[in-house]
C-alpha cells in the first residue's frame, strides 16, 4: 500500500460531517417529519414524549419543559418543531451562543405568546447570567429585569405567559444540575440503526422524487454514521451521480460507485478518517502514539484529529484512546486490509492479545 496515495485531507465541506452545511439548511425544512408518528426511530423518546404531550393536551395546559440530548444531526430541532405542532403552538428558535446577556433572554421571554415553544439549541453554551434568569423563568414563569447599575440597581419583576422550553444539547453532562433539574422530561437521542436510516432515506427519496431501490438505500444507510442528516446528504449526492452517470435510479451498484467517487467507504469513513488510521498503522505500527504526533503526521490540527476524526473512529471500535496514546484496534487493521505486526504491533504490549 502506498501511504502517500492521497493528498492532505481537509475538513472543509465534509460529506460525512454531522453539522449542518448551507445546503442542508436549505433542504432540511422540506425533509423534516412534521408529526411524531412520521418521526423515524428513537422509539423510547417518541413514546415518552407522546405521553407528555397527550397529557398536557388533556389538561389543556402547556407541556413540561423538555431537554433533548444527543449528537448533531439526530433530530433535536425536528423534534422541537414536532412538539410545537402537536401542541398546536407557535415555535421560536434560538441558541445558547446567541444569548450572551440576560437582557437578550428577557427580550425573547417577554415576547412569547401563551403556550409558545421556545427552542434553545446548544443550551450548554448560554452565558451564566442568562442561565440564572432562565431558572426562574422555567420554574415560576417570571423574570427579574435589573434596571440600573451598582448600588442603585433595582429588580423589576416581569410576569411571563406559560411556555414550553425545549433545550437541546450535545452534552447533557455539561449542564449545571439546577438547570437539568428544571426540565420535566429528558430525552436521550441515540445514533440510528441502519434499518432506521433506510426508512429515513426512503422517506426523503419520496419527498425529493428520487427513484431508489431497497439495496441502494441499504448501501447509503450503512455509510451514514448513524445520523439522519448524513443519510439525507449522501442521498442527495448519490442522486446527483445517478442522474449524471446512470439512468437516475439508485441501485446498490450506483450507490457504491457514487460513494466511491465521494470517498466515503463502506463503513462511512472519509479521507480524513482513513488518513488518521493509515498514519497510525503505517507510520506508528498501530500505536500507542501521542495525539500531537498523529496530527502532524496527517497534516492536521490536533483539535481536528481529536474532535472531527476520532469520535467516530472510537465509536466504530477502530481506535482506542489510552493513557499512553492512540492505539489501533485489530478491526482497524482489518478495515484497511492490513495484517498487524506479530505480537500485536510495536508498543501495543499485547493490549489486544497476541
Ligand atoms: N427521526 C427522523 N426521521 C426522519 N428524518 C429525520 C429524523 N431525525 C432527523 N431527521 C432529518 O435529519 C435532518 C437533521 O435533523 P435536525 O436538524 O433535527 O438535527 P439536530 O439534532 O437538531 O441537529 P443539530 O444539533 O446540528 O441542530 C433533518 O433534515 C431531518 O429531516
UniProtKB/TrEMBL annotation:
Coiled coil: none annotated. Residues 62-195 form the AAA+ ATPase domain. Residues 12-192 are annotated as: Large ATPase domain (RuvB-L). Its EC number is 3.6.4.-. It catalyses: ATP + H2O = ADP + phosphate + H(+). It is an enzyme of class 3 (hydrolase). Residues 193-263 are annotated as: Small ATPAse domain (RuvB-S). ATP binds at residues 31-32, 73, 76-78, 139-141, 182, 192, 229. Residues 266-354 are annotated as: Head domain (RuvB-H). One of its GO terms (biological process) is DNA recombination. Its main location: cytoplasm. It comes from the Bacteria. InterPro entries: AAA+_ATPase, AAA_lid_4, DNA_helicase_Holl-junc_RuvB, P-loop_NTPase, RuvB-like_N, RuvB_wg_C, WH-like_DNA-bd_sf, WH_DNA-bd_sf. Mg(2+) binds at residue 77. Has 3 domains, the large (RuvB-L) and small ATPase (RuvB-S) domains and the C-terminal head (RuvB-H) domain. The head domain binds DNA, while the ATPase domains jointly bind ATP, ADP or are empty depending on the state of the subunit in the translocation cycle. During a single DNA translocation step the structure of each domain remains the same, but their relative positions change. NCBIfam families: PRK00080.1, ruvB. Belongs to the RuvB family. The RuvA-RuvB-RuvC complex processes Holliday junction (HJ) DNA during genetic recombination and DNA repair, while the RuvA-RuvB complex plays an important role in the rescue of blocked DNA replication forks via replication fork reversal (RFR). RuvA specifically binds to HJ cruciform DNA, conferring on it an open structure. The RuvB hexamer acts as an ATP-dependent pump, pulling dsDNA into and through the RuvAB complex. RuvB forms 2 homohexamers on either side of HJ DNA bound by 1 or 2 RuvA tetramers; 4 subunits per hexamer contact DNA at a time. Homohexamer. Forms an RuvA(8)-RuvB(12)-Holliday junction (HJ) complex. HJ DNA is sandwiched between 2 RuvA tetramers; dsDNA enters through RuvA and exits via RuvB. An RuvB hexamer assembles on each DNA strand where it exits the tetramer. Each RuvB hexamer is contacted by two RuvA subunits (via domain III) on 2 adjacent RuvB subunits; this complex drives branch migration. In the full resolvosome a probable DNA-RuvA(4)-RuvB(12)-RuvC(2) complex forms which resolves the HJ. This is Holliday junction branch migration complex subunit RuvB. The lineage of its organism: Bacteria, Bacillati, Actinomycetota, Actinomycetes, Kitasatosporales.
